[in-house]
Protein backbone atom coordinates (compact mmCIF):
# COMPACT_ATOMS: atom_id res chain seq x y z
CA UNK A 1 0.00 0.00 0.00
CA UNK A 2 1.19 3.51 -0.85
CA UNK A 3 0.69 6.30 1.68
CA UNK A 4 0.79 9.94 0.67
CA UNK A 5 0.49 12.56 3.41
CA UNK A 6 -0.41 16.17 2.74
CA UNK A 7 -1.67 18.96 5.01
CA UNK A 8 -4.89 18.24 6.86
CA UNK A 9 -5.18 21.35 8.97
CA UNK A 10 -2.29 20.51 11.30
CA UNK A 11 -0.11 23.43 12.34
CA UNK A 12 3.09 23.03 14.31
CA UNK A 13 3.39 25.12 17.48
CA UNK A 14 6.58 26.37 18.98
CA UNK A 15 8.46 23.79 21.01
CA UNK A 16 8.23 25.81 24.18
CA UNK A 17 4.47 26.12 23.97
CA UNK A 18 3.75 22.39 24.10
CA UNK A 19 6.39 21.05 26.43
CA UNK A 20 5.06 19.42 29.58
CA UNK A 21 5.93 20.84 32.98
CA UNK A 22 8.57 18.66 34.53
CA UNK A 23 9.98 18.51 38.05
CA UNK A 24 13.31 20.28 38.37
CA UNK A 25 16.51 18.41 39.13
CA UNK A 26 18.67 19.67 41.99
CA UNK A 27 21.98 18.21 40.78
CA UNK A 28 25.26 19.90 39.84
CA UNK A 29 25.19 22.44 37.03
CA UNK A 30 27.33 23.33 34.05
CA UNK A 31 27.53 23.43 30.25
CA UNK A 32 27.30 20.41 27.96
CA UNK A 33 28.74 20.76 24.45
CA UNK A 34 26.74 18.80 21.91
CA UNK A 35 27.72 18.21 18.29
CA UNK A 36 24.56 17.64 16.29
CA UNK A 37 23.37 17.47 12.68
CA UNK A 38 19.79 18.06 13.85
CA UNK A 39 17.96 21.11 12.43
CA UNK A 40 17.32 24.25 14.44
CA UNK A 41 13.73 23.46 15.45
CA UNK A 42 14.82 20.14 16.96
CA UNK A 43 17.71 21.75 18.81
CA UNK A 44 15.36 24.45 20.09
CA UNK A 45 12.83 21.87 21.34
CA UNK A 46 15.51 19.93 23.20
CA UNK A 47 17.08 23.08 24.63
CA UNK A 48 13.71 24.19 26.03
CA UNK A 49 12.92 20.72 27.35
CA UNK A 50 16.28 20.44 29.06
CA UNK A 51 15.68 23.73 30.87
CA UNK A 52 12.71 22.09 32.55
CA UNK A 53 14.14 18.62 33.13
CA UNK A 54 17.69 19.70 34.02
CA UNK A 55 17.64 23.44 34.75
CA UNK A 56 21.24 23.36 35.89
CA UNK A 57 22.51 22.22 32.49
CA UNK A 58 23.10 24.63 29.63
CA UNK A 59 23.51 23.34 26.09
CA UNK A 60 26.15 24.63 23.73
CA UNK A 61 25.48 23.15 20.31
CA UNK A 62 27.69 22.93 17.24
CA UNK A 63 25.79 21.94 14.10
CA UNK A 64 26.85 20.49 10.77
CA UNK A 65 26.60 17.35 8.68
CA UNK A 66 26.96 14.11 10.64
CA UNK A 67 30.01 13.01 8.70
CA UNK A 68 31.63 16.41 9.12
CA UNK A 69 31.01 16.43 12.87
CA UNK A 70 32.20 12.87 13.41
CA UNK A 71 35.42 13.65 11.57
CA UNK A 72 35.79 16.71 13.81
CA UNK A 73 35.43 14.51 16.92
CA UNK A 74 38.04 12.21 15.43
CA UNK A 75 40.43 15.11 14.87
CA UNK A 76 39.88 16.28 18.47
CA UNK A 77 40.27 12.82 20.02
CA UNK A 78 43.50 13.71 21.85
CA UNK A 79 41.74 16.65 23.51
CA UNK A 80 37.94 16.30 23.19
CA UNK A 81 35.99 19.53 22.88
CA UNK A 82 32.46 18.08 23.07
CA UNK A 83 30.56 15.83 25.44
CA UNK A 84 27.75 14.27 23.39
CA UNK A 85 27.20 13.49 19.73
CA UNK A 86 23.47 13.62 18.91
CA UNK A 87 22.56 11.88 16.61
CA UNK A 88 23.16 9.65 13.61
CA UNK A 89 22.38 6.22 12.20
CA UNK A 90 24.25 3.18 13.41
CA UNK A 91 25.49 2.60 9.87
CA UNK A 92 27.46 5.83 10.19
CA UNK A 93 28.45 5.61 13.86
CA UNK A 94 29.88 2.13 13.36
CA UNK A 95 32.91 3.52 11.56
CA UNK A 96 33.65 5.85 14.50
CA UNK A 97 33.00 3.53 17.45
CA UNK A 98 36.47 4.17 18.90
CA UNK A 99 35.42 7.76 19.64
CA UNK A 100 32.72 6.84 22.16
CA UNK A 101 32.53 5.36 25.63
CA UNK A 102 29.75 3.12 26.96
CA UNK A 103 26.80 4.51 28.86
CA UNK A 104 23.66 2.57 29.79
CA UNK A 105 20.92 5.11 30.46
CA UNK A 106 18.35 4.56 33.19
CA UNK A 107 15.71 5.12 30.46
CA UNK A 108 16.85 2.15 28.37
CA UNK A 109 14.24 -0.20 29.83
CA UNK A 110 11.54 1.66 27.86
CA UNK A 111 13.40 1.20 24.57
CA UNK A 112 12.95 -2.09 22.66
CA UNK A 113 15.82 -4.58 22.88
CA UNK A 114 16.14 -4.49 19.08
CA UNK A 115 17.37 -0.89 19.39
CA UNK A 116 19.98 -1.60 22.09
CA UNK A 117 23.65 -1.46 21.16
CA UNK A 118 25.19 -4.50 22.82
CA UNK A 119 28.14 -2.53 24.21
CA UNK A 120 26.05 0.54 25.11
CA UNK A 121 28.23 2.73 22.90
CA UNK A 122 25.15 4.59 21.63
CA UNK A 123 21.47 4.88 22.58
CA UNK A 124 18.44 5.13 20.28
CA UNK A 125 16.73 8.51 20.44
CA UNK A 126 14.18 8.35 17.61
CA UNK A 127 13.15 6.23 14.61
CA UNK A 128 13.02 7.74 11.13
CA UNK A 129 10.97 6.55 8.15
CA UNK A 130 12.32 7.16 4.64
CA UNK A 131 9.94 9.02 2.31
CA UNK A 132 9.89 11.04 -0.88
CA UNK A 133 9.02 14.70 -0.26
CA UNK A 134 7.15 16.06 -3.30
CA UNK A 135 6.18 19.61 -4.26
CA UNK A 136 2.88 19.11 -6.10
CA UNK A 137 2.94 22.62 -7.59
CA UNK A 138 5.95 21.65 -9.70
CA UNK A 139 4.84 18.28 -11.06
CA UNK A 140 3.47 19.66 -14.32
CA UNK A 141 3.01 16.70 -16.67
CA UNK A 142 4.92 14.33 -14.37
CA UNK A 143 2.55 11.85 -12.69
CA UNK A 144 2.68 12.03 -8.91
CA UNK A 145 5.13 9.34 -7.79
CA UNK A 146 3.84 6.27 -5.96
CA UNK A 147 6.79 3.90 -6.33
CA UNK A 148 10.58 3.98 -6.25
CA UNK A 149 10.48 2.86 -9.87
CA UNK A 150 8.74 6.09 -10.85
CA UNK A 151 11.93 8.06 -10.19
CA UNK A 152 13.70 6.23 -13.03
CA UNK A 153 11.39 7.86 -15.58
CA UNK A 154 13.41 10.27 -17.78
CA UNK A 155 10.93 13.00 -16.82
CA UNK A 156 12.47 12.97 -13.34
CA UNK A 157 16.03 13.59 -14.50
CA UNK A 158 17.40 16.58 -12.59
CA UNK A 159 14.15 17.02 -10.66
CA UNK A 160 14.69 14.67 -7.72
CA UNK A 161 17.45 15.40 -5.23
CA UNK A 162 19.35 13.77 -2.40
CA UNK A 163 22.19 14.88 -0.14
CA UNK A 164 25.79 13.73 -0.55
CA UNK A 165 26.09 10.43 1.38
CA UNK A 166 29.73 11.21 2.17
CA UNK A 167 28.57 14.03 4.44
CA UNK A 168 25.03 13.04 5.34
CA UNK A 169 24.05 9.94 7.31
CA UNK A 170 20.49 10.59 6.13
CA UNK A 171 21.52 10.24 2.50
CA UNK A 172 23.72 7.23 3.19
CA UNK A 173 20.89 5.49 5.02
CA UNK A 174 18.44 6.18 2.20
CA UNK A 175 20.70 5.14 -0.67
CA UNK A 176 21.99 2.02 1.07
CA UNK A 177 18.41 1.01 1.89
CA UNK A 178 17.27 1.62 -1.69
CA UNK A 179 20.03 -0.65 -2.97
CA UNK A 180 19.02 -3.39 -0.52
CA UNK A 181 15.37 -3.10 -1.53
CA UNK A 182 15.65 -2.43 -5.25
CA UNK A 183 19.09 -3.77 -6.23
CA UNK A 184 22.38 -2.36 -7.55
CA UNK A 185 21.12 -1.91 -11.10
CA UNK A 186 18.26 0.26 -9.84
CA UNK A 187 20.64 2.38 -7.75
CA UNK A 188 22.94 2.93 -10.73
CA UNK A 189 20.00 4.09 -12.84
CA UNK A 190 18.77 6.35 -10.05
CA UNK A 191 22.21 8.00 -9.92
CA UNK A 192 21.60 9.11 -13.49
CA UNK A 193 18.43 10.98 -12.54
CA UNK A 194 19.14 12.49 -9.12
CA UNK A 195 20.79 15.75 -8.23
CA UNK A 196 23.29 15.34 -5.39
CA UNK A 197 23.31 18.36 -3.13
CA UNK A 198 25.53 19.38 -0.25
CA UNK A 199 23.43 18.54 2.81
CA UNK A 200 20.20 16.93 4.01
CA UNK A 201 18.77 20.31 5.06
CA UNK A 202 19.34 21.74 1.57
CA UNK A 203 17.12 19.02 0.11
CA UNK A 204 14.23 20.01 2.37
CA UNK A 205 14.61 23.71 1.63
CA UNK A 206 14.99 23.01 -2.07
CA UNK A 207 11.72 21.10 -2.33
CA UNK A 208 9.84 23.54 -0.10
CA UNK A 209 11.10 26.57 -2.06
CA UNK A 210 10.57 25.05 -5.50
CA UNK A 211 14.17 24.30 -6.47
CA UNK A 212 13.50 20.55 -6.69
CA UNK A 213 10.26 18.75 -7.52
CA UNK A 214 11.09 15.97 -5.06
CA UNK A 215 13.69 15.02 -2.50
CA UNK A 216 14.54 11.76 -0.76
CA UNK A 217 14.55 12.36 2.98
CA UNK A 218 13.22 11.37 6.39
CA UNK A 219 9.54 11.61 7.27
CA UNK A 220 9.88 13.92 10.27
CA UNK A 221 11.93 16.52 8.41
CA UNK A 222 9.53 16.62 5.47
CA UNK A 223 6.34 16.59 7.56
CA UNK A 224 7.40 19.77 9.30
CA UNK A 225 6.60 21.63 6.06
CA UNK A 226 3.19 19.94 5.78
CA UNK A 227 2.36 20.83 9.36
CA UNK A 228 3.70 24.32 8.78
CA UNK A 229 1.02 24.99 6.19
CA UNK A 230 2.57 24.18 2.80
CA UNK A 231 -0.41 22.38 1.24
CA UNK A 232 1.59 21.66 -1.92
CA UNK A 233 4.02 19.38 -0.04
CA UNK A 234 3.21 15.68 0.14
CA UNK A 235 5.01 12.71 1.70
CA UNK A 236 5.11 9.49 -0.31
CA UNK A 237 5.74 6.09 1.27
CA UNK A 238 6.60 4.04 -1.86
CA UNK A 239 4.45 1.00 -2.52
CA UNK A 240 7.42 -1.35 -3.02
CA UNK A 241 8.18 -0.62 0.62
CA UNK A 242 10.35 1.76 2.57
CA UNK A 243 12.59 1.39 5.60
CA UNK A 244 13.15 2.76 9.04
CA UNK A 245 16.36 4.08 10.51
CA UNK A 246 16.85 4.65 14.22
CA UNK A 247 19.04 7.56 15.24
CA UNK A 248 21.50 7.20 18.10
CA UNK A 249 23.40 9.51 20.42
CA UNK A 250 26.69 8.75 22.10
CA UNK A 251 28.92 9.94 24.93
CA UNK A 252 32.24 11.12 23.53
CA UNK A 253 35.27 9.36 24.98
CA UNK A 254 37.16 11.69 27.30
CA UNK A 255 34.28 14.19 27.37
CA UNK A 256 35.15 17.28 29.44
CA UNK A 257 31.79 17.12 31.25
CA UNK A 258 30.96 13.42 31.07
CA UNK A 259 28.65 13.34 34.10
CA UNK A 260 26.55 16.20 32.77
CA UNK A 261 26.65 14.55 29.36
CA UNK A 262 25.11 11.39 30.83
CA UNK A 263 22.36 13.41 32.49
CA UNK A 264 21.68 15.14 29.18
CA UNK A 265 21.38 11.78 27.46
CA UNK A 266 18.92 10.59 30.12
CA UNK A 267 16.83 13.72 29.54
CA UNK A 268 16.79 13.15 25.77
CA UNK A 269 15.52 9.60 26.30
CA UNK A 270 12.85 10.54 28.85
CA UNK A 271 9.19 10.07 28.00
CA UNK A 272 8.37 13.76 28.44
CA UNK A 273 11.15 14.83 26.09
CA UNK A 274 10.28 12.26 23.44
CA UNK A 275 6.61 13.29 23.48
CA UNK A 276 7.67 16.93 23.16
CA UNK A 277 9.90 16.07 20.19
CA UNK A 278 7.10 14.09 18.58
CA UNK A 279 4.51 16.84 18.99
CA UNK A 280 6.80 19.66 17.94
CA UNK A 281 9.22 18.10 15.45
CA UNK A 282 7.38 14.90 14.39
CA UNK A 283 10.20 12.55 15.35
CA UNK A 284 8.93 9.06 16.13
CA UNK A 285 10.08 8.06 19.62
CA UNK A 286 12.43 5.19 20.30
CA UNK A 287 10.42 4.39 23.44
CA UNK A 288 7.73 1.73 23.30
CA UNK A 289 5.36 3.46 25.76
CA UNK A 290 4.25 6.30 23.43
CA UNK A 291 1.43 5.92 20.86
CA UNK A 292 2.36 8.16 17.91
CA UNK A 293 -1.22 8.69 16.67
CA UNK A 294 -2.21 10.12 20.07
CA UNK A 295 0.03 13.10 19.37
CA UNK A 296 0.49 13.70 15.61
CA UNK A 297 -1.19 12.93 12.30
CA UNK A 298 1.26 10.32 11.02
CA UNK A 299 0.50 6.70 10.07
CA UNK A 300 1.31 3.91 12.49
CA UNK A 301 4.33 1.88 11.48
CA UNK A 302 2.19 -1.23 11.06
CA UNK A 303 0.25 0.63 8.35
CA UNK A 304 3.40 1.23 6.28
CA UNK A 305 5.11 -1.48 4.23
CA UNK A 306 8.52 -1.71 5.90
CA UNK A 307 11.54 -3.44 4.40
CA UNK A 308 13.96 -4.70 7.04
CA UNK A 309 17.57 -3.52 6.76
CA UNK A 310 20.68 -4.41 8.73
CA UNK A 311 22.44 -1.36 10.15
CA UNK A 312 25.52 -3.35 11.12
CA UNK A 313 25.95 -4.52 7.53
CA UNK A 314 25.48 -0.94 6.36
CA UNK A 315 28.22 0.21 8.71
CA UNK A 316 30.62 -2.53 7.63
CA UNK A 317 30.00 -1.87 3.95
CA UNK A 318 30.10 1.92 4.09
CA UNK A 319 33.42 2.55 2.33
CA UNK A 320 32.68 0.13 -0.51
CA UNK A 321 29.19 1.53 -0.97
CA UNK A 322 30.34 5.15 -1.08
CA UNK A 323 33.01 4.32 -3.66
CA UNK A 324 30.44 2.49 -5.78
CA UNK A 325 27.91 5.32 -5.49
CA UNK A 326 30.53 7.88 -6.49
CA UNK A 327 31.31 5.76 -9.51
CA UNK A 328 27.64 5.69 -10.49
CA UNK A 329 27.36 9.47 -10.15
CA UNK A 330 30.52 10.13 -12.15
CA UNK A 331 29.46 7.66 -14.81
CA UNK A 332 26.13 9.44 -15.23
CA UNK A 333 27.75 12.81 -16.03
UniProtKB/TrEMBL annotation:
Coiled-coil positions: none
Which CDD domains does the entry mention?
Answer: PBP2_BitB
Organism lineage reads as: Bacteria, Pseudomonadati, Pseudomonadota, Alphaproteobacteria, Hyphomicrobiales
In its UniProt entry, what is this protein called? Iron(III)-binding protein
- Keywords (A to Z) from UniProt: Signal
Keyword GTP-binding found: no
Give the signal peptide as a residue range, or say none if absent: 1-25
Q: What species was this sequence derived from? A: Shinella yambaruensis
Is Signal included in the keywords of this UniProt record? yes
Amino acid sequence: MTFTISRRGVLAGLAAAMLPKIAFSQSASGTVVVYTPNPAQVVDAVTEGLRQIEPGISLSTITGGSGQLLRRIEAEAASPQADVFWSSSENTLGAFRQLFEPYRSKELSAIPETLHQKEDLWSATITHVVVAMVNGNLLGDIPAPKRWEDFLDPKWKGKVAIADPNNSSTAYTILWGIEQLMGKEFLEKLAGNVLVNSSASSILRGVAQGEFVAGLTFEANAYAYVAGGQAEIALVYPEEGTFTSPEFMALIKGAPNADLGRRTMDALLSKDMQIALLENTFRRPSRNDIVVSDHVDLPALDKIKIFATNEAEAAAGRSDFLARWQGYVQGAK
